[in-house]
Amino acid sequence: MKAGYGILTCLLQLLLLPWSSAGIRINNTTLCRDRLGYFPKDLFQVSTCSLCYEYLTDQSKKFVLNKPVNFRMLQTKPFYLIKKNDASCTVYPKHENQTSMSEVCNTLSSVECTNWSACCRAAWNCCERQVFDDPEDFCPQTWDGWNCWNYTAPGKTVTDTCPSYIGDTDSGLKVSKKCTENGTWFISEKSNLEWSDYTNCVPSISQLFRNVIIISIVFNSVGLILLLLAIYIFCSYRQLRRQLRIRIHLNLMVSLLITGVFTMVWDVAVQYNRLVNKKDDSLMHSQEDVCKSLHIMRRMTKATNFFWMLCEGLYLHHLMINAFVPPKHLRVYFIVGWGIPAALFTLYAILRKTIADDSLCWTLPLTGPERALEWVLVNTPSILCLLLNFIFLLNILRIIVRGMVHHPNEPTGFRKALRATFVLVPLFGIHQFCLIYLPSSDNQPAFDIYQIASAIINNSQGIVIPLIFCYFNGEVQSHLKSSWIYYCERMKEIDGARKISWTSATSRRTSLNSLNPEAGGISMTNLNPTGTNGAVNLGFEDTAKAS
């Protein structure tokens, strides 16, 4: 009899679960409420801890929920975690169960593990505080996924301090939650779930990424304009485009131009899109194939920049050690600049698709043995390009300084060395060494400074390179000056020809007007000296009389 009563009670609880968020009160101390409904305490603990993991680990999760998060669904079983690459591996996390917590924490950083564990404990504390005797027509006590809320009077908005485990929160800021006039918590139209306003809790990190995107777009826009004009100038003058040095500059600028285009598309279509849209609606999650294509093209073009910077260093170093005798052709440079990065990233895309983590637009860093794929095909080649260019720069400066020693009375030697350093550092990409160390996001000021500096340095090369090697170049300025003088002279000739044409036309009009009687010109009557009978006397009569 008792067993039958227990089964009946359980069935009644399950039947009431999907309606629990619609304002129906359940007076049962064995149940705890979150925004999805009422759970028995043991299931509540597992579900909320699993949901804490889902909400706090957007970019680095190795586990997924066993089912989608839907509102008012029949909760016959709790949420729990399933390992991404092994569906047979399931975890039912409870904050007091160190085995289950450790299994998940092993895939997280120490900070992420601490924050997740704190969220799980806060959810359980909320469950223990809940007493299901809420006043009639009040919004019920609940857990919203991050924070615990007491019962609230209808039409009132309540606030609480932002939870510390969200990460990157500013102290003193508040999260708010609205109780509607009918005694239910406000529901978002987008998610169809009860919604709390955490906008103020993470202004620093969201605003930081917005600022980074804006900086990137502005610098790339200016760079694209300067690069297009510089490429046009180099291609317009035969004397310039025939020089091997200029041809290498042209290829580097074309590479920077393509990189700028893909970076801008990535910033707008992927990064900014992710900031302003719900996760599932963003391009990163809804159109992964498009996102992966953009991601691989952006990274490949960035690598192409490094290889063309290496070509610049290789060419100049060749000139310095060979008494300024240029190479006979540039085939090797084209293979290094365009061929090697294309081959590396084609192989990377194939391997990433087949044997490595294929999720989330390939933006997550690889871990374990798969990490070697990232280092061998992506990071190491770019670092080698920078190291070789650094060696080239040191040797070039050594040659310049040695020349100063042999000519100690040369006053401009030191200035030449400084100028060479200033010019070659951005050309060789040596400034990229400033970005090797990435501060932890736990050190918020350092992390913010790094992100801003990285956005400026990475996206300013398209501005610096054309300025130094095109617009500030004396040879280019000479050609532009000659073209301007020629243009001005041509305009003077055209204006002179127009004036002559206008004067001639005016003279012709004046001549025609002189023959027009209506305009006061010469008439046939004016040619009759006697005016007799209106005839024209041309002197024939006198001639006839004389004869």
From TrEMBL:
Pfam families (UniProt xref): 7tm_2, HRM
GO cellular component entries: plasma membrane
Protein name per Swiss-Prot or TrEMBL: Calcitonin receptor
Family: Belongs to the G-protein coupled receptor 2 family.
Protein's cellular compartments: Cell membrane
Signal sequence extent: 1-23
Keyword Protein transport listed: no
Transmembrane spans: 212-234, 246-266, 306-325, 332-351, 375-397, 417-438, 450-472
Gene Ontology terms for molecular function: G protein-coupled peptide receptor activity
InterPro entries: GPCR_2 (IPR050332), GPCR_2-like_7TM (IPR017981), GPCR_2_extracell_dom_sf (IPR036445), GPCR_2_extracellular_dom (IPR001879), GPCR_2_secretin-like (IPR000832), GPCR_2_secretin-like_CS (IPR017983)
Keywords on record: Cell membrane, G-protein coupled receptor, Glycoprotein, Membrane, Receptor, Signal, Transducer, Transmembrane, Transmembrane helix
Ranges for domain G-protein coupled receptors family 2 profile: 126-205, 212-473
Keyword Cell inner membrane among UniProt keywords: no
Naturally occurring in which organism (per UniProt): Potamilus streckersoni
PROSITE patterns cross-referenced by the UniProt entry: G_PROTEIN_RECEP_F2_1, G_PROTEIN_RECEP_F2_3, G_PROTEIN_RECEP_F2_4
BP terms from Gene Ontology: adenylate cyclase-modulating G protein-coupled receptor signaling pathway; cell surface receptor signaling pathway
Membrane protein topology class: Multi-pass membrane protein
